[in-house]
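User: Hey, my collaborator sent me this sequence without any context and asked if I could get a structure. I don't really work with proteins. Can you help?
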Amino acid sequence: MRIALLTYSSKPRGGVVHTLALAEALAALGEDVTVWTLGRGGDAGFFRPVDPAVSLRVVPFPEVAGEGIGERILRSIAVLREAFDPASYDIVHAQDCISANAVGRCVRTVHHIDHFTTPELAACHEKAIVEPYAHVCVSGAVAGELKAGWGLSPVVIPNGVDAARFAAAVGSASAQRWVSKLGRYVLSVGGIEPRKGSVELLEAFALLGLPDVRLVVAGGETLFDYRDYRAAWEARAVELGVVPEILGPVDDAELPGLMAGASAFAFPSTKEGFGLAAMEALAAEVPLVTSNLPVLREVFTGAAHFAIDTASLAAGLSAAIETPDPRRREIGKALAARYTWPAAAERHRALYRSLL
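Assistant: No problem. I've predicted the 3D structure and written it out in structure-token form, which is a compact way to encode the shape of the chain:
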């Protein structure tokens, strides 16, 4: 099959990680796979090397000074639509609302449901749910939301995870370097934004009472403008006396070591589709503390501590750091090893064949 997978960015976000890993696994099955994206910020390629068996089409998308989020969304759709030729492919599979709006008839993966107030984003989100002819969700919880809200019946195909890559980082020189630099630390991956529960994490961390433990935040590449939220987060950190270590985007080769060196992984998200970064933490044998979302209960029950509020988030982190549960660690390792990209690719290929 000639398969096009489309994503909106070349930066290290969960949906982009998913797209690249799925593309490589499909190519390993012998399929003809091309990944399309927008090259934001002058990018000519993705944040990591991609298997040469996968063809790449990075459409230039220069920055425009003073452009609002609504204007940027509409321009993103228009630029990708102009460059893309759907007639060249048997299957066109969009991984987000921008690419789904750009390409017309397609399969769509809905990673999680958003609720936007920007008119252009709200319209983009709605159209990208109702117009695709087939839908995939990475968890049953999100599939249930699509069923309840739109009457759709998506196919559920969970994410894969490169568990071996993160398991190999346990006790590695890279992990030791991070520990030497940071000491004991709670790690959060995904940047500082409302959906990641960043303010709630700050407040929970302030309750820990462990002065030798640091809060480390990695990642943060996003299409959206969270400057006001970031400023409020920084002001709250000062009020609480918390001095976080903000790493920003971390080189892909360094991420497993950073993960494996952590004393605990905090995942207090308000919306998720699966929790890929949290699954990578389990593969690296790091205790996981998450918010009590239905989707996270579905995926991580038995392997994570679930927090219902700031106090229980603090309590979970404290227990994870001071008295980690070896049984939960073993359950987590086994869980991460269960989700593989080859298995996800096989299920996607079966779906594609059923649609042709």
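In plain terms: The longest helix spans residues 14-28. You can pass these tokens on to your collaborator as they are.
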